[in-house]
Amino acid sequence: MSQTNDIVVIGASGHAKVIIDIIEREGAYRIAGLIDSYKQLHTKVMGYEILGREDSLPALVTEGRILGGIVAIGHNWMRSQMVQRIRELAPGFVFVNAIHPSAQIARDVELGCGVAIMAGVSVNPGCRIGDFCFLNTNASVGHDSVLEEFSCLQPNAATGGNVRVGAFTAVSMGATVIHGVTIGPHTVIGAGATVLRDVPGLVVAYGTPCAVIRGRQPADGYRGAARTRGQ
Description:
By secondary structure, the chain is an alpha/beta fold.
């Protein structure tokens, strides 16, 4: 079987458009097409055809047409469900990273697989970014911090040093997490929040200072979780 650097992008939403742009700029892989469960076969997004649903992947891999790809789904839980589905369907599928050339990744940083890092991101020394995390535009991760698997920082979110963000947790746009804070798994930190102390798992928290507002379940959406001070 011949070697290839062709990959697919799984998803065809706005988040996928950002991933496509990163892959094109990075130049490490060639996009063979997109995989999507909802858009019509052969329709195009940013010039790339929808090749099929995820059940098309086993043939693409075994025939040597693709090496693997990246899951471009913004919701952490939904991304994890797609990863699980792909692993069941196509065990040989390789999950690649997409890192924008403008991102600043310091030395002594550990990146997992399936990671997406957008334009203007800064990751400081000693950090660990877990499997299938994404760091959105201009996010910043302070030294010696950890993002556990399937977590994310949204645009302009920032952490101080020695912060731990739990698995599947989303830190929304413009939120700030001070040095040494731990946020539990499956939590949503609302946009613009200022996190001054630890936040447990399975909650929605927002405000300045950030406070727990209510509980949530892993599969819950993010809508309504982005309110800030005075609400």
